[in-house]
Amino acid sequence: MTVIGLTGGIASGKSTVSAYLKEKGIPVFDADGAAWEVEKAGSPCLRELTDAFGEGILTPEGELDRKEMARRAFHDPGVLQQLNAIVHRAVEQKRDGFLAAHRQDPVVILDAPLLLECGWEKVTDTVWLVYLPEEEQIRRAMIRSGMTREEVTDRIRKQMSLEEKKKKAQVVLDNQGSLEALYRQVDRELARILP
Length: 195
Ligand code: ATP
Hints:
The protein is an alpha/beta fold. The protein has two domains: 1-27 and 106-194, Rossmann fold (3-Layer(aba) Sandwich), CATH 3.40.50.300; 31-104, Rossmann fold, CATH 3.40.50.300. Helices cover 54% and strands 12% of the residues. It has a five-stranded parallel beta sheet with strand order 2-3-1-4-5, with helices on both faces. Helix 4 crosses helix 5. The protein binds adenosine-5'-triphosphate. The site of adenosine-5'-triphosphate has 16 residues, from helix 1, helix 6 and helix 9. This is Dephospho-CoA kinase. Belongs to the CoaE family. Catalyzes the phosphorylation of the 3'-hydroxyl group of dephosphocoenzyme A to form coenzyme A. GO terms for molecular function: ATP binding; dephospho-CoA kinase activity. InterPro entries: Depp_CoAkinase, P-loop_NTPase.
Protein backbone atom coordinates (compact mmCIF):
# COMPACT_ATOMS: atom_id res chain seq x y z
CA MET A 1 0.00 0.00 0.00
CA THR A 2 1.26 3.45 -0.90
CA VAL A 3 0.13 6.19 1.48
CA ILE A 4 -0.08 9.61 -0.18
CA GLY A 5 -0.27 12.62 2.14
CA LEU A 6 -2.24 15.33 0.35
CA THR A 7 -1.87 18.85 1.63
CA GLY A 8 -2.05 22.49 0.57
CA GLY A 9 -2.74 25.96 1.84
CA ILE A 10 -5.81 28.17 1.98
CA ALA A 11 -7.67 27.92 -1.37
CA SER A 12 -4.76 26.15 -3.08
CA GLY A 13 -7.02 23.40 -4.46
CA LYS A 14 -6.52 20.49 -2.06
CA SER A 15 -10.25 19.69 -1.82
CA THR A 16 -10.48 19.78 -5.63
CA VAL A 17 -7.72 17.18 -5.92
CA SER A 18 -9.16 15.13 -3.08
CA ALA A 19 -12.61 15.01 -4.74
CA TYR A 20 -11.00 13.99 -8.04
CA LEU A 21 -9.11 11.12 -6.39
CA LYS A 22 -12.26 9.97 -4.56
CA GLU A 23 -14.13 9.93 -7.87
CA LYS A 24 -11.49 7.55 -9.16
CA GLY A 25 -12.36 5.19 -6.31
CA ILE A 26 -9.26 5.82 -4.23
CA PRO A 27 -9.90 5.70 -0.45
CA VAL A 28 -9.47 9.15 1.09
CA PHE A 29 -9.17 9.94 4.82
CA ASP A 30 -10.47 13.45 5.48
CA ALA A 31 -8.65 14.77 8.55
CA ASP A 32 -10.87 17.86 8.92
CA GLY A 33 -14.02 15.75 8.71
CA ALA A 34 -12.58 13.33 11.25
CA ALA A 35 -11.89 16.19 13.67
CA TRP A 36 -15.60 17.13 13.54
CA GLU A 37 -16.66 13.52 14.00
CA VAL A 38 -14.54 12.80 17.06
CA GLU A 39 -16.24 15.69 18.86
CA LYS A 40 -19.75 14.34 18.32
CA ALA A 41 -22.09 13.65 21.25
CA GLY A 42 -21.25 10.42 23.05
CA SER A 43 -17.79 9.97 21.51
CA PRO A 44 -14.87 8.92 23.74
CA CYS A 45 -13.04 12.07 22.66
CA LEU A 46 -15.86 14.31 23.82
CA ARG A 47 -15.87 12.46 27.15
CA GLU A 48 -12.15 13.20 27.49
CA LEU A 49 -12.88 16.86 26.79
CA THR A 50 -15.59 17.06 29.46
CA ASP A 51 -13.28 15.24 31.91
CA ALA A 52 -10.69 17.93 31.24
CA PHE A 53 -12.89 21.05 31.00
CA GLY A 54 -16.22 20.17 32.65
CA GLU A 55 -19.79 19.88 31.37
CA GLY A 56 -19.83 23.62 30.70
CA ILE A 57 -18.40 22.99 27.25
CA LEU A 58 -21.53 21.08 26.17
CA THR A 59 -24.71 22.34 24.54
CA PRO A 60 -28.04 21.29 26.10
CA GLU A 61 -28.11 18.50 23.46
CA GLY A 62 -24.80 17.10 24.73
CA GLU A 63 -22.79 18.22 21.72
CA LEU A 64 -19.57 20.17 21.94
CA ASP A 65 -20.35 23.88 22.31
CA ARG A 66 -17.70 25.03 19.84
CA LYS A 67 -18.18 28.72 20.59
CA GLU A 68 -17.66 28.20 24.32
CA MET A 69 -14.69 25.88 23.75
CA ALA A 70 -13.10 28.41 21.37
CA ARG A 71 -13.71 31.22 23.87
CA ARG A 72 -11.91 29.32 26.64
CA ALA A 73 -9.05 28.26 24.36
CA PHE A 74 -8.64 31.84 23.15
CA HIS A 75 -8.26 33.12 26.70
CA ASP A 76 -5.95 30.37 27.97
CA PRO A 77 -3.05 28.91 25.96
CA GLY A 78 -2.95 25.94 28.36
CA VAL A 79 -6.55 25.08 27.47
CA LEU A 80 -5.75 25.39 23.76
CA GLN A 81 -2.79 23.05 24.09
CA GLN A 82 -4.77 20.45 26.03
CA LEU A 83 -7.71 20.68 23.59
CA ASN A 84 -5.40 20.19 20.60
CA ALA A 85 -3.64 17.25 22.24
CA ILE A 86 -6.93 15.44 22.98
CA VAL A 87 -8.44 16.06 19.52
CA HIS A 88 -5.21 15.28 17.64
CA ARG A 89 -4.81 11.98 19.45
CA ALA A 90 -8.41 11.00 18.64
CA VAL A 91 -8.01 11.96 14.96
CA GLU A 92 -4.74 10.02 14.74
CA GLN A 93 -6.50 6.94 16.14
CA LYS A 94 -9.14 7.30 13.40
CA ARG A 95 -6.40 7.74 10.81
CA ASP A 96 -4.63 4.58 11.97
CA GLY A 97 -7.94 2.69 11.87
CA PHE A 98 -8.43 3.88 8.28
CA LEU A 99 -4.92 2.77 7.30
CA ALA A 100 -5.45 -0.65 8.90
CA ALA A 101 -8.82 -1.09 7.18
CA HIS A 102 -7.27 -0.32 3.78
CA ARG A 103 -4.12 -2.42 4.14
CA GLN A 104 -5.01 -4.36 0.99
CA ASP A 105 -5.57 -1.29 -1.20
CA PRO A 106 -2.72 -0.34 -3.54
CA VAL A 107 -3.00 3.37 -2.73
CA VAL A 108 -4.75 5.53 -0.13
CA ILE A 109 -4.86 9.28 0.53
CA LEU A 110 -4.49 11.16 3.80
CA ASP A 111 -6.12 14.51 3.06
CA ALA A 112 -4.94 16.94 5.75
CA PRO A 113 -4.45 20.71 5.52
CA LEU A 114 -2.07 20.56 8.50
CA LEU A 115 -0.32 17.34 7.45
CA LEU A 116 3.17 18.83 7.72
CA GLU A 117 2.43 20.99 10.76
CA CYS A 118 1.28 17.84 12.61
CA GLY A 119 4.14 15.59 11.50
CA TRP A 120 1.89 13.20 9.60
CA GLU A 121 4.46 12.88 6.82
CA LYS A 122 6.01 10.16 8.97
CA VAL A 123 3.08 7.81 8.20
CA THR A 124 3.07 8.59 4.48
CA ASP A 125 5.23 7.27 1.64
CA THR A 126 5.02 10.51 -0.32
CA VAL A 127 3.68 14.02 0.27
CA TRP A 128 1.74 15.78 -2.49
CA LEU A 129 1.38 19.53 -2.17
CA VAL A 130 -1.24 21.45 -4.12
CA TYR A 131 0.60 24.68 -4.81
CA LEU A 132 -0.33 28.24 -5.72
CA PRO A 133 1.73 31.43 -5.42
CA GLU A 134 0.45 33.50 -2.50
CA GLU A 135 -1.06 36.23 -4.66
CA GLU A 136 -3.28 33.71 -6.49
CA GLN A 137 -4.13 32.02 -3.17
CA ILE A 138 -5.39 35.37 -1.89
CA ARG A 139 -7.35 36.05 -5.09
CA ARG A 140 -9.12 32.67 -5.09
CA ALA A 141 -9.81 32.77 -1.36
CA MET A 142 -11.38 36.24 -1.70
CA ILE A 143 -13.59 35.10 -4.59
CA ARG A 144 -14.68 31.97 -2.75
CA SER A 145 -15.40 33.36 0.70
CA GLY A 146 -15.97 37.07 0.32
CA MET A 147 -13.26 37.70 2.91
CA THR A 148 -11.17 40.85 2.60
CA ARG A 149 -7.54 40.77 1.47
CA GLU A 150 -6.47 41.52 5.06
CA GLU A 151 -8.53 38.65 6.50
CA VAL A 152 -7.14 36.17 3.97
CA THR A 153 -3.54 37.37 4.43
CA ASP A 154 -3.91 37.11 8.19
CA ARG A 155 -5.07 33.48 7.90
CA ILE A 156 -2.28 32.61 5.48
CA ARG A 157 0.32 34.06 7.87
CA LYS A 158 -0.90 31.75 10.66
CA GLN A 159 -0.05 28.61 8.62
CA MET A 160 3.26 27.23 7.38
CA SER A 161 3.85 29.03 4.06
CA LEU A 162 3.36 27.12 0.82
CA GLU A 163 6.97 27.94 -0.12
CA GLU A 164 8.12 26.16 3.04
CA LYS A 165 5.73 23.23 2.44
CA LYS A 166 7.06 22.98 -1.11
CA LYS A 167 10.52 22.14 0.25
CA LYS A 168 9.10 19.25 2.29
CA ALA A 169 6.88 17.75 -0.44
CA GLN A 170 7.98 15.02 -2.86
CA VAL A 171 5.37 16.04 -5.45
CA VAL A 172 4.23 19.59 -6.20
CA LEU A 173 0.93 19.87 -8.09
CA ASP A 174 0.93 23.34 -9.61
CA ASN A 175 -2.65 24.67 -9.64
CA GLN A 176 -2.07 27.99 -11.43
CA GLY A 177 -3.56 26.66 -14.65
CA SER A 178 -6.92 25.10 -15.51
CA LEU A 179 -8.63 22.28 -13.61
CA GLU A 180 -7.83 20.02 -16.56
CA ALA A 181 -4.14 20.85 -16.19
CA LEU A 182 -4.35 20.01 -12.49
CA TYR A 183 -6.09 16.68 -13.14
CA ARG A 184 -3.47 15.78 -15.78
CA GLN A 185 -0.73 16.22 -13.16
CA VAL A 186 -2.66 14.04 -10.72
CA ASP A 187 -3.08 11.32 -13.35
CA ARG A 188 0.60 11.46 -14.23
CA GLU A 189 1.67 11.10 -10.58
CA LEU A 190 -0.83 8.31 -9.97
CA ALA A 191 0.48 6.43 -12.99
CA ARG A 192 3.93 6.41 -11.38
CA ILE A 193 2.45 4.59 -8.37
CA LEU A 194 -0.18 2.48 -10.16
CA PRO A 195 1.43 1.64 -13.48
P1 ATP B 1 -9.19 25.31 1.80
O1 ATP B 1 -8.29 24.33 2.47
O2 ATP B 1 -8.91 26.74 2.10
O3 ATP B 1 -10.66 24.97 1.94
P2 ATP B 1 -8.53 24.02 -0.71
O4 ATP B 1 -7.05 23.93 -0.85
O5 ATP B 1 -9.25 22.79 -0.34
O6 ATP B 1 -8.89 25.22 0.22
P3 ATP B 1 -10.31 24.21 -3.00
O7 ATP B 1 -11.55 24.36 -2.19
O8 ATP B 1 -10.09 22.94 -3.74
O9 ATP B 1 -9.03 24.57 -2.12
O10 ATP B 1 -10.19 25.39 -4.06
C1 ATP B 1 -10.30 26.77 -3.65
C2 ATP B 1 -11.15 27.54 -4.64
O11 ATP B 1 -10.45 27.66 -5.87
C3 ATP B 1 -12.47 26.86 -4.96
O12 ATP B 1 -13.45 27.85 -5.13
C4 ATP B 1 -12.17 26.13 -6.27
O13 ATP B 1 -13.33 25.94 -7.04
C5 ATP B 1 -11.20 27.08 -6.93
N1 ATP B 1 -10.22 26.41 -7.81
C6 ATP B 1 -9.53 25.28 -7.58
N2 ATP B 1 -8.72 24.98 -8.60
C7 ATP B 1 -8.89 25.94 -9.53
C8 ATP B 1 -8.33 26.20 -10.83
N3 ATP B 1 -7.40 25.42 -11.38
N4 ATP B 1 -8.76 27.29 -11.48
C9 ATP B 1 -9.69 28.11 -10.93
N5 ATP B 1 -10.27 27.94 -9.73
C10 ATP B 1 -9.87 26.87 -9.02
